[in-house]
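Posting this for the archive.
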Amino acid sequence: MSEQQQRSADRTEGAPQDPGAVRPEGRRDDEAVSQFVERFAAQLVEAGMQRMSARVFACLLASDSGVLTSAELGERLQVSPAAVSGAIRYLSQVDMVSREREPGSRRDRYRVHSDQWYEAMARRDNILTRWEGTLRDGVESLGEDSPAGRRMNETLVFFEFLQKELAGLLQRWREHRDQIRAEYGDAR
C-alpha cells in the first residue's frame, strides 16, 4: 500500500459508521479501536504518563501508518488542538513520537515508531549508568556497613544486575524482531 493510500485508510479508520451495517473484510470496528485506545491509555496513566499524552500515544499506535496530523488526532480523540499540542510536546520531549512535515503541506504530522519500546528501554541503560554512579557515591558516604549503606548497596547491585540483563535482553529482542519482520516481509 502506498503512503497516500495508507493516509487515506487512516483518515477513514475513524469515520462514523452505521452500527447496523456489515463491516467489509479488513474494515476495523471503530468503536473497538476507540475502546482499545482508552483502555491502553488508562494503563499508561497508571504507569505514570500524563493522561492526554497517553491517549495521543495510544491513538498513534493504533493507526495503521503510525502517523497522524494534529487535526486527525483531535478528531479521533474528540479533544481540542491545544490538548493535542501539549501532549505532542511532552511525547516529543521524551522521544516517543517524532514530528515531520506532511509532503507538499505546511501541516505537521506525528509519527510513532515501530521500535519505540526498544528505544525507550535502550535509553534506560544511560539512566541506570547515572544512577549506579550516584548510588556508589551514596554507599561510600553512608558507609558499607551501616543499615542505610547496605540498603543503598543492594539497590546498586540490583541496578547493576538489571543493566547487565537488559543488554542481553535487548540483543535477543533485536534478533527476535528481525525474525518477525522477515516473516512479514517487512525490511524496516
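Residues 129 and 163 are 8 Å apart (CA to CA). Helices lie at 3-13, 30-46, 51-62, 70-77, 81-93, 116-142, 147-184.
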